[in-house]
Design goal:
This protein has 192 residues and is mostly helical. It has helices at 2-36, 47-69, 73-103, 126-139, 145-174, 179-187. It is flat, with a radius of gyration of 25 Å.
Length: 192
């Protein structure tokens, strides 16, 4: 009986120690983040820091792509603009559908009331604008079938135009690649 009580007491102390250790680790990580200046309160990064980090990350990603494709600096100067155009068109075509689904859960596009998750209207691409218009029509319970059809047709038309641009951009990039390089970009989802 004493051994059982002793075992329970040791187990409880062990669990308590584990909880305290994990709590201490979490607090230390939060303090470290604050000391590095990564995060301004409530998990939000300063917009300028965010922009700088994104540019830094983008530069590293592009350099890794160049290296992975086995391109010299000179070859990369020809390939890079076409590669970036493909990336941008891929981003535009993948973004609005995701935003539509997220936007349906809440006004903020995040499924809550924290505010807009998307770019500001003046920064939106044509497809993002068409997606926003479609979402706004769908959010109105009294929207007529004609209003919905009109917004849907506009969205589809913009998407068809972008897909044609992307197809052309893919072909333009392929012209500069070896079969191996093309296969690498297909395997990573950059090219179809």
């Amino acid at each position: 009986m004493i051994n059982r009580k002793w075992a329970v007491a040791v187990s409880v102390c062990g669990l308590l120690g584990l909880v305290l250790a994990l709590t201490g680790l979490a607090v230390a990580q939060d303090a470290e983040r604050g000391q590095r200046g990564d995060w301004g309160g409530r998990g939000q990064m300063d917009p300028e820091q965010m922009r700088a980090r994104m540019e830094e990350w983008r530069g590293r990603m592009l350099e890794e792509t160049r290296t992975h494709l086995g391109l010299s600096e000179e070859e990369w100067t020809l390939v890079k603009p076409r590669y970036e155009q493909v990336l941008e068109l891929n981003r535009q075509l993948s973004g609005p559908a995701r935003g539509m689904m997220l936007g349906m859960r809440g006004r903020g596009g995040r499924g809550d009331d924290r505010g807009p998750a998307q770019t500001q209207p003046q920064d939106q691409t044509a497809l993002e604008k068409a997606s926003t218009q479609l979402r706004e029509v769908l959010e109105q319970p009294n929207s007529s079938p004609e209003q919905i059809q009109s917004a849907l047709t506009s969205y589809r038309q913009v998407r068809i135009e972008l897909e044609a641009q992307r197809k052309q951009a893919h072909e333009s990039l392929r012209e500069l690649l070896t079969v191996r390089q093309e296969a690498i970009l297909v395997s990573t989802g950059v090219l179809n």
